[in-house]
Amino acid sequence: MTLPIDRRSALLLLGGVGAAPLLASARSRGLQPDPSRPARIQPGDVFGLVSPATAAFETDPTEVFADAFRAVGLEPRLGRNYYERRGYFAGSDAERAADIMEFFADPEVKGIFARGGWGAARVLPHLDYDVIRANPKVLLGYSDATALLMGVHAKTGLVVMHGPGPGNRFSTEHFRRTLMDGEADLLENLVEDPGDHIVPREHRVRTIAGGRASGPLLGGNLTVLTAIMGSEYLPDFAGAILFLEDVDEAVYRVDRMMTTLKLAGVLDRIAGFIFGRCTDCDPGSGFGSLTLEQVIEDHIATLGIPAFRGSMIGHIPEQFTLPVGGRAEMDADRGTIRLLEPAVL
Q1: Mean pLDDT within 160-166
Q2: Are strands 46-50 and 75-78 parallel, antiparallel or unpaired?
Q3: Residue tagged active-site, from 162, 174, 245, 297
Q4: What strands lie across the sheet with 109-114, from one edge to the other?
Q5: Rounded Cα gap, residues 42 and 237, in angstroms
Q6: Catalytic position from the list 143, 171, 249, 297
Q7: Is 315 a catalytic residue?
Q8: Helices (H), the chain
């Protein structure tokens, strides 16, 4: 996920932006507590907005986003360092981590949304995971927030949420159903007109290998995930359903990152695979290139596990809210994800 600061303003600002022994070592340090689920969000609850990565721009659409939380009956509250600035970051690593910890420790705050950009990985050593474990609450984000979601889940066992928050009709519906109503939902791509069953091109799914698999959902942004590979901030992927997405990456870089997952032993441990969207991931200029589809199939088709691509996950206007660490069943022939338990209590 290359990240020139002057691009992707709304999408990335609000959400988006020797390895096998290391993984075994992380597991041996007890970083995989039993999963715990946060309480569901209720109308009137305070929802904290934090900026653990890139600084807010002058044209930042935060107030519009805050209004979207108000529209579903919640009270948005900005972290005290939300608009701080240190180079391209929203303050120092310690300041950005302090906002997260303040909201986790505050009993009035019931949920936290982490906007994207670049830099959430840098706050991970500054977080107090004992405090987070003792105060489970909804933690939501995507894109660069993948590092925060993975780190918190690996260290505490808390089921965290990969998603955009309320916004358009589709995302708001999934936010409400998953986090407020506590539904164990069936996630399937939009069909433009159910009467004639014509699926828009951008919402079509492609089966890589058929079948069903069940297990905890783990994943997020491919670039961010591979950037923390080998650290103590990744959970055990054994038996998991791995989901991935990315934005503005050349195909050869996607290939390189998928190779990293293979060499680290991750792909050989998972039970199922889902690739969402890789927005603006073109082959690029120069002589010759594999297609993105060829790269994904090269790495996945030979694994002998159910796999599909095209799920509504990633840097797109309409996307699912996924409980990271929550159990789900995927159907690679239908291109669906069924949550086997509510994401919240």
Answers
A1: 96
A2: parallel
A3: 245
A4: 75-78, 46-50, 109-114, 138-141, 160-162, 322-324
A5: 32
A6: 143
A7: yes
A8: 9-11, 19-28, 62-71, 93-105, 120-123, 129-134, 146-156, 169-175, 222-227, 251-263, 292-300
245 a catalytic residue: yes
Asked if residue 100 lies in contact with residue 123, where contact means CB atoms within 8 angstroms, the answer is yes
Q: Which residue has the higher pLDDT, 35 or 335?
A: 335
**pLDDT over 90, % of the chain:** 79
Predicted confidence (pLDDT) per residue in 88-120, tens digit? 999 999 999 999 999 999 999 999 999 999 999
Looking at the predicted structure, is the pLDDT value of residue 29 above 60? no
Amino acid identity at 124: L
Q: What residue type is assigned to position 155 of the chain?
A: K
| Confidence (pLDDT) at 328 | 98
Catalytic-residue membership of 143: yes
- With both helix axes pointing from N to C terminus, report the angle between 251-263 and 292-300 in degrees, rounded to the nearest 10: 10
Q: Is the separation of the CB atoms in 113 and 149 below 8 Å? A: no
- Give me the pLDDT at residue 260, please: 98
